[in-house]
Design a protein that fits this description.
By secondary structure, the protein is an alpha+beta fold. It has a single domain (about 5-84), classed as Double Stranded RNA Binding Domain, CATH 3.30.160.140. Helix content is about 35%, strand content about 30%. The protein contains three helices and five strands; from the N terminus they run ββββαααβ. Strands 1, 2, 3, 4 and 5 form a five-stranded mixed sheet that branches. It is elongated, with a radius of gyration of 12 Å. The model has no long low-confidence stretch (mean pLDDT about 95).
Length: about 80
């Protein structure tokens, strides 16, 4: 497992109330979504609008990537993970 995050892009998904970002295991792209509740726990008092959630993600970027590595199991079976 060689999960890395060279792409700094992230986006807000209003329908799921989460922030989506991408990692790579070799050439495979893996999508991750971090739920509003997780970001709220990292940033207590955070509003639940797009700009607040993206700001919380950016503020806790390293911690979120550690969480992503923790939920990632590797292998071809999954290409999407939720951090909740």
């Amino acid at each position: 497992m060689s999960l890395n995050f060279p792409n700094p892009s992230r986006s807000y998904d209003a329908s799921r109330h989460c922030v989506v970002f991408w990692g790579y295991d070799d050439s495979r792209e893996i999508a991750f979504q971090v739920d509003e509740a997780v970001l709220s726990n990292l940033s207590p008092g955070m509003a639940s609008d797009e700009s607040s959630m993206l700001a919380a993600f950016d503020l806790h970027h390293d911690r979120v990537l550690l969480l992503a590595r923790g939920v990632y199991s590797g292998g071809p079976q999954k290409n999407r993970y939720t951090i909740s």
